[in-house]
Amino acid sequence: MKRIPYVHRDVSWLSFNYRVLQEAKDINVPLLERIKFLAIYSSNLDEFFRVRVAGLKNLVRIGKKTKKELDFEPQEVLRKILKIVNKQQQEFSHIFENMIIPDLKKNNINIVRRKHLNEDQNKFIEDYFNDHLLPFVQPVLLVGKKVRPFLNNGALYLALHLIQKDDKNEKAQYAIVKIPSDHTDRFIELPPRKEGKKDIILLDDIVRHSVRWIFPGFNVLDTYSIKLTRDAELYIDNEYSGDLVDKIKLSLNKRNIGPASRLVYDREIPKHFLDYLMDAFDLNKYDILEEGRYHNNSDFFSFPDFGLIHLKDIPLPPLEIAALEDVDSIFAPIKEKDHFLHVPYHSYESVVKFFEDASEDPNVTHIKIIQYRVAKDSRIMSALIKAVKLGKQVTAFIELKARFDEKANLEWGEKLEKAGAIVHYSLPGLKVHSKMAIIRRIEKGKPQLYGYLSTGNFHEGTAKIYSDMGIFTSDKRILSEAIRVFSYLETKKIPKKPFKHLMVGQFQMKERLIAAIEQEIKMAKKGKKGFIFLKMNSLQDNEMISLLYKASQEGVEIQLIIRGICSLVPGIKGISENIKAISIVDRFLEHARVFIFGTSERQEVLLSSADWMVRNLHHRVETIFPIFDPDTKKIIVDVLKLQLSDNMKSRIIDVNKNNSYFKGDSDFVLRSQHETYFYLKRILEEDALKKEVVEDEINDD
């Protein structure tokens, strides 16, 4: 059987992260935002090594036992990853050293190295070291494998090359010193050398300057920064026995002491020193990765802005949806019609109000919610606790296996339980990734359901930076089936009725998606227009990709907007020539999943919590929900047309994998995220004007 064109998910993900790095070197992006993209790139890469690369290394260690079960060679993928990342890291250093630093200087911000400090600055950093850093540097002289300190996950260290002062043979010795960035800021403002200038020194260089006092009997020949990241996987996804909550608590305690997934080191380090460190910490060539002078570049999130707002993105304040927010109770407008929400363009206040109104409304009896990721200070969760205290029955399903949010989710679950809510936790072998909430309200003696279904989590923090879509609805077609999803999560009993309007993971969701694609193939075979549009974070499932290739070969037009992983290869003659794919990386993280099948009157528009990855389609409870309201359909389609026309932030995904920018045929510059904001603003203003006219007519009567 001939293998279809397919890009390994991890290799494709690196291509996505390079798109993030492209933003850091785009001179059209404001300078402080470019620095932020350096931080995003680095933070992404850290997690990638802690999870994906750590998993590949485990497969390599297991060896031949797993090879028959895999459709790829783990060691070969690992080699590709290291080669790609090494190249990207060189570009990262070039961007920082040759683009960011000079541009900061043009704006009177100087990142100062030790050799350029004046007398006042020297005294300042020496005092700073003694007052703030000395108790935390943890110096250790290395003696082969006899003295091998434990390197904390993600912590910064200086590796020192030393010679003892009284050693006539000048035998090389080595030491480790911690850079205590967990105790103080990474970027320290210095007394300025010139008026009107801002001088900054990195914490690393303060420690470099001061290490000679820590080892008074040695000459410090040189210092090199290093950092170790550790395997972050909890390895509990498929646990069926025992108390899952206890297992997660125990695993969280072990996360930061897992095996090494990566040692990053200053590429200037001599080979003899690197060999020594590899031997001392029992590392091999797949465990090490060269970077520049500084690591933990995710710390650039906290780079000082000095109030220079002209070096940041123009403000796009969230748009208030008056129909939902400026009302005594949110339920009346939802009962009247569906309401569309597109964060972060729209304010998230309507979602918060949904729960806060429910908590205080004496007619509300039940609140049900699925929580995958929760904000640290969550007004939604506080509203749920208040609702319990006011006599509502609150049921929350909290997914404890949401990576890196396990602890926060546990804490909120315990708070809800303590308040008296009914809390259900993770299902064995599955993740629950649906984004739904339902409120039951008694109206005229009868129960009425209200719901909010979304592509994103109930998280007030990410709603400011993630681009997601959702609907408030009282539509019985949707909510009667959503209730069955909650019943399954609460009782673990398989629903007796099939889902007609919702597509639900574990209950023929994938089969119905396949049927939707095959319907477009049938239309194309009949000589009619077959059309598929898919917007998602990741496209990786082999079976779905094969079917999209088949649809392309039958003449179906397929348009893709894939932010992250895209294992499908568009534009190959005879295979995927009718498939076009782009990726948009801009100030907001594209997180919405939208699927459109068909054209004109038979067009079906769906929003989803699910990407098309093996994990989403096979190992998660997901929800895909239809858009029935024609006004909402039009808005969604219009927004997607703007994205397909983006000629500033759109990159082409194709066989070349070079992330070239999409320019299109138009000379009109179009940045879809900005255009979307102003498009939605115009709609709200038109609605407000219509309402004003109606009110005037009523008053006249």
Protein model, in words:
- With 701 residues, the chain is of the alpha/beta class.
- The chain is 39% helix and 21% strand.
- It folds into three domains: 9-311, Polyphosphate kinase middle domain (polyphosphate kinase like, 2-Layer Sandwich); 338-497, Endonuclease, Chain A, CATH 3.30.870; 504-675, 2-Layer Sandwich (Endonuclease, Chain A).
- The strands form five sheets. Strands 10, 11, 12, 13, 15, 16, 17 and 22 form an eight-stranded mixed beta sheet that branches.
- The longest helix is centred in the first third of the chain and has 33 residues, at 74-106.
The rounded Rg comes to: 28 Å
Termini separation: 76 Å
Proportion of residues in β-strands: 15-25%
Helicity, in percent? 25-40%
Looking at the structure, the CATH topology of the largest domain is: polyphosphate kinase like
Outline of this structure?
The protein has 701 residues and is α/β, with parallel strands linked by helices. It folds into three domains: 9-311, Polyphosphate kinase middle domain (polyphosphate kinase like, 2-Layer Sandwich), CATH 3.30.1840; 338-497, Endonuclease, Chain A (2-Layer Sandwich); 504-675, Endonuclease, Chain A.
Topology:
Elements lengths: L8 H17 L5 H32 L1 H4 L6 H33 L2 E3 L7 H15 L6 E3 L13 E9 L7 E8 L7 E4 L7 E5 H12 L3 E13 L13 H11 L5 E7 L4 H10 L7 E4 L30 H4 L5 H6 L2 E5 L5 H12 L3 E8 L7 H11 L3 E6 L7 H14 L2 E3 L6 E2 L3 E8 L2 E9 L11 E8 L2 H16 L11 E2 L4 H17 L5 E6 L5 H12 L3 E6 L16 E6 L4 E2 L2 E5 L6 E5 L5 H5 L1 E2 L1 E4 L3 H15 L5 E4 L18 H29 L1
Parallel strand pairs: 1-6, 8-9, 11-12, 12-13, 14-25, 17-22, 19-20, 20-21
Antiparallel strand pairs: 2-4, 3-4, 3-7, 5-6, 7-8, 10-17, 11-15, 15-16, 16-17, 18-26, 19-23, 21-27, 23-24, 24-26
Helix pairs in contact: 1-2, 1-4, 2-4, 5-6, 11-12, 12-13, 15-16, 18-19
